[in-house]
Design brief:
- The protein contains four helices and no strands.
- It has 158 residues and is mainly alpha-helical.
- The chain has a single domain, classed as 3 helical TM bundles of succinate and fumarate reductases (Up-down Bundle), CATH 1.20.1300.10.
- Pathway: Carbohydrate metabolism; tricarboxylic acid cycle.
């Protein structure tokens, strides 16, 4: 243990607050900065998309009582609403995945655990985005052989 000239124990050396931060590893670029900016921009856009979605689905017409197969089919007959819902799906999934990635990086201390969790996270995100996109683009509002009362008005019963 180090001592001062008077024999008192020496205090540990603390670097000045303005000293440059020493990184554990060097990074290749500004990925974390772009990730941070994306979270802010996507969060604002998601607020608009989600509240617009909730307003149209819950506040117009009969509210929650109007939501059935015909309502969704009528909405998704329009390219505008398909694009709206697709953008909401993609942004929400990427935004959430990026947030969980940050939590994993912060709390998973061992490299193997961190890599495993992030691989599982990315696989789940890709599968969810792919299935959601597939549902939006392959949705057929005019099903045949079903209850004609559930069909939207623009479908002709066959």
């Amino acid at each position: 243990m180090a001592t001062t000239e008077t024999g008192a124990p020496a205090s540990p050396t603390i670097s000045a607050p303005r000293d440059p931060y020493k990184r554990r590893k060097t990074t290749r670029g500004n990925y974390e900065l772009y990730s941070w900016v994306f979270m802010r921009a996507s969060g604002v856009l998601l607020l608009v998309l989600v509240f617009g979605h909730l307003f149209v689905n819950l506040m117009t017409g009969d509210g929650v009582h109007q939501i059935d197969f015909a309502f969704v089919a009528g909405k998704w007959a329009s390219p505008f609403w398909k694009t709206w819902d697709l953008l909401m799906l993609w942004l929400a999934m990427i935004h959430g995945t990026n947030g969980v990635r940050t939590v994993v990086n912060d709390y998973a201390s061992r490299d193997g655990v961190r890599i495993t969790l992030k691989v599982l996270l990315y696989v789940a995100a890709v599968v969810t985005i792919a299935l959601g996109t597939l549902v939006i683009f392959t949705f057929d509002p005019c099903i045949s052989g079903g209850d004609t009362d559930l069909l939207p008005a623009f479908c002709f019963a066959s």
